[in-house]
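Intended use. Records like the one below are meant for learning the mapping from a protein sequence to its folded structure. Do not use them to infer anything beyond what is encoded.
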Amino acid sequence: MKILVTGASGLLGRALMRILAARPDLEVKGVAFSRAKPPLEKLDLTDEDAVARFFARYRPEVVVHLAAERRPDIVDMQLPKAQAINVDATRTIARECARHAAFLLLISTDYVYDGASPPYYPDSPVHPLNAYGRMKLESEYIAERALSGILGPSGGRPAGAVLRIPILYGPVESFQESSVTEVALALKSNTPRKVEHWARRYPAHVDDVSSAIMAVVDACLRGKGPFGPFPRFLLSGDHAYTKYEMVQIMARALGLEASHIQPDPSPPTGAPRPRDCRMDSSLLESLGWRQKKEFESEIGGILRPFF
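Structure written out for the chain above:
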């Protein structure tokens, strides 16, 4: 089976490419743009003609669309650019998937919810608070309209699916690559500072998300359940942490002093964030998926090379 992964140079993309490479039944192609280097192929997803030519040449059977501008504050500052990659590129990819009868798994976000009444389920009302959440929700609808019914009537399986995920952590190339590891910058000096202690987040390790991606793809392609033409799966980490709680766990894991860091009970500045987007992962778990990586046992090893 031929699988295309967009955004393959990113935090999640690297983990997914590594896991896919271990499967002898798959032929995997990863594309990226600003950080593309062999074996990844450089592809500008905002160039409709280039994407169409790529699909015609490679003819993927499955597309996992990871590429996105995921930082809400950057989205607000660069709306046209974010719209191009988060929405317009998804429209192009979904159109090509429909044209070539390829299954599309779109990675979305827990920010499609407003965080006011957790837990959230696949059919819970959506109400994004910021432009990033609105763009990702729009991209879900675009993909669904493009693909629903393409494979369902003939193949008896979904034409595509959405996997909504929380904030991610894993082996990073820099602190800024993850909003989780970014808070570890507070441990780099003894300067007094406050760290947000308001929103509850459910971080997931990129290896667990990668295994969830493959569980969804395998189940949908085999028609394992009555999911409908374009199902939505939800993934949350098992435990909730504020960013202040995360940095305290990091300090303990690294054996560092953290008395200079104080909790800030105010909502974060910048783009509005939901307070608690806990999602129910039962549908995903019905496929046999389980979380294996625990934040408190994993984060120290991820951060240690930087200290």
